[in-house]
Design goal:
By secondary structure, the protein is an all-alpha fold. The chain contains 3 helices and no strands.
């Protein structure tokens, strides 16, 4: 494979490069209510776990591929880790607030 450095003339010929999704400003949440946002995050985690279960069943019945199954399970595991960490931190914060003397 040959790698040719991109010079300014070639860059102009390609035109503008679209923004990467991670560099775009984050969309504001529909609600600033923590409970509603946390509920939506848990619903998303549940949907991802259901999707991973579906891809595992499809692979077991020889209708799906191994890569799709592994990717869906890995994504669901990461989402579950994030959800449990958020729940743990919320419980710690609530415990700290309840332990304060008034």
């Amino acid at each position: 494979m040959t790698v040719v450095p991109l010079d300014s003339a070639a860059a102009r010929a390609l035109g503008p490069v679209p923004d990467a999704p991670l560099l775009r400003p984050a969309a504001r949440a529909e609600s600033s209510d923590f409970g509603a946002n946390f509920g939506r995050a848990l619903d998303a985690a549940e949907a991802m776990l259901v999707q991973a279960d579906g891809t595992e069943r499809a692979f077991a019945s020889e209708r799906g591929g191994l890569q799709e199954m592994v990717l869906a399970r890995a994504q669901a595991d990461v989402m579950l880790s994030i959800a449990t960490a958020a729940a743990s931190r919320a419980a710690q914060a609530l415990s700290s607030v309840l332990a304060m003397q008034i």
